[in-house]
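Moderator note: this is an archived Q&A kept for reference. The question asked for a predicted structure of one protein chain; the sequence and the answer are reproduced below.
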Amino acid sequence: MPDITMGLFDYSETDNHAPFTLALQSNLADGSGGGQAFRFIGDEGAITVQGRSLILSKSPRRRPPDEAVFKGYNSVRTFSEAQQKAFVKAYFDSIRNGTPVYEDVVYGYRAAAPSLLCNLSLFNKQIYQWDPEGMQLRT
């Protein structure tokens, strides 16, 4: 595996979600001793989950240019405040109380597919098109 990888995945609008871009990064050469973290980056800052800590970093909110809004950029409004609160509550309930989380194998496959495609793209030196609804490579 290479020391540094980066993948960008553009998801089109569907009946279930607005369009968005997913960025996956891996840096195995940074010399930090192998730490792991998940970062949820939004328009007002980031939440970093690392080990047993949760770090909230706030930055001033920037309004996207009108042109970007008109062309469909709307990551600011992807999830409602109620959906965000429900996710956070379910996440911490599952950790604290062992409450079951209801993500099935399809959910896991959808979550793993971008990383698997990064590896395919790297090793085969080509760009792949993914059908997220059909969950298969486009030909």
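Archived answer notes: The helical segments are 66-70, 81-97, 105-124.
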